[in-house]
Amino acid sequence: MAPRGGAPRLVLLFSGKRKSGKDFVTEALQSRLGADVCAVLRLSGPLKEQYAQEHGLNFQRLLDASAYKEAYRRDMILWGEAQRQADPGFFCRKVVEGVCQPVWLVSDTRRLSDIQWFQEAYGAVTQTVRVVASEQSRQQRGWAFTPGVDDGESECGLDNFGDFDWVIENDGDEQRLEEQLGNLIGFVRARL
Q1: Of the residues 6, 96, 168, 184, which has the fewest C-beta atoms closer than 10 A?
Q2: pTM score, two decimals?
Q3: Angle at the Cα of 125 from the Cα atoms of 104 and 172, rounded to 5 degrees
Q4: What's the CA gap between 8 and 31, in Å, rounded?
Q5: 3-state SS assignment for residue 164
Q6: pLDDT-derived band of residue 93, with 50, 70 and 90 as boundaries?
Q7: Can you tell me the distance from the alpha carbon of 41 to that of 99, in angstroms, rounded to the nearest whole number?
């Protein structure tokens, strides 16, 4: 079960393919809502920290969008899967420790078990948000298909999830993106 001390008013679980813009969207929302109101939580943060410790790697370099991170991505995914097999909620529990803002934006939800954990822990305040972008848009952002990564659970685990509460189209149409963010911000503010 999740730590309940600072129970959130709203938990938005963001998912999407690599280079779809999940971080861009969550950071844009946080900048508009304010860091005092909303926290961006990255499930990959505790995973990368633990992986770096156990493998003698630079944790900070695993956090950025660098070749350094990409060199370890496949092994890190396999290591993370083994951790989740042993304890599906491990990284979810770690990422919410000490968070006191009323709105949580989980920027990298990748598996059904992540969604289930947050829904069980926080119930009706949990919403799912899918960020979508065409392959062409993702390629323009530097994406290239990597076997063992882009066809694995970390990228495909939610492809057949079903109905997301929100879908954000992030193909480069700034006006359309602003419209969608405005709708989501209105929803968030109504819950504060």
Answers
A1: 6
A2: 0.87
A3: 55
A4: 18
A5: coil
A6: very high
A7: 9
